[in-house]
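Teaching assistant's notes for section 4

Start the section by putting this record on the projector. Ask students to predict, before seeing the second block, whether Putative SnoaL-like aldol condensation-catalyzing enzyme will look compact or extended. Collect guesses on the board.
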Amino acid sequence: MKATLLATLIVSSALLSACTTTTGSNLDATKALTNKEKAVAVLNSIESGNPKAISYINSTNYTQHNLAVGDGLAGFGEVLQALPKGSAKVDVVRAFEDGNYVFTQTDYNFFGPKVGFDVFRFDNGKIVEHWDNLTVKADKPNPSGHSQLDGSLVITDIDKTAANKALVSDFVNTVLVKGEYQKMSQFFDGDSYIQHNSEIGDGLSGLAKAIDEMAKHGVNMTFSKVHKVLGEGNFVLTISEGEFAGKATSYYDLFRVENGKIAEHWDVVETILPNSEWKNTNGKFGNL
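Reveal the predicted structure now:
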C-alpha cells in the first residue's frame, strides 16, 4: 500500500509536470497561481488528497527540514500514508509571501490537533525546500481569552514591509537574544499588546508575569540565534533557536506591527528532536 501511494504521488507529479511543459493552456494555468496559492494547495492536499497539488513540489529536488520526516517527495508520501484514513484536517488561517518564500499558519488535525507554521522556498515556481514548527493545540483560551490562531487577518502596509522586518528583528535580537529587557518598552505602544501564546496574557504586564512565573519554577527560556526574518506588510515571522527548560528548542514567532510598534503576537515553540531520531540530515534550520 505504501509503495502504491508513493508511486502514485511521484507518477502524478511527473505527468502533471510534463503536461505543463507541453500544453500551452496548462502552462498558463500554472503560471496564474501565485507561490502563496501553490503552498496553500499543497497543505490542503493533506486533507483532500488532491494529486495535482503534488505537481507544485519539485519531484527531484525537495529538501525537508522537519526532522521527523524523510527527505524528498518520498518522505512526504510516507507521512501521508501513516495518517489514519480520514483523520487529517487542514485550515490555513494565514498565508504570506516574501520573495521566493511563502510562510503559513495552520490549524491542523495531523496525528492529533496541532497548530503549525510552515515555510516553503520556491525555485522556478516549484517548492524545493520546507521548514516547519508544530505544537499541540491548546484546549482552552489563554489568560486573556485568545486562542493560538484568532486575531487579525488583514495584510496591510506592504510598503512598510522592510521597516517592519527591521523593527521585529531588532526586538528579537535586542530583547530575546541579548536579554536587554530594559529596552522592551520601546518596541510597544504601552501595554497595548495582544498575546496568543496559550499560557500568557495580553500586554507587557502579561509577559512580565509569565517570565516571573517561569523563574519561580526554575524554567529558563533563552534565544541564542535568529535564523530568518520573513515578512509581508504588517506581519513578520522570525525563526530562532535556543533552549526552553533545558531542551534545544525552535521558536517561530509571528508579529503584527501597527504604527511602528508591535501590536500582536502568535508563536509555536517546538522541542528539537535529538539527532538519534532524525529521519533526514538537513537540520532544523539548514539553509535558512
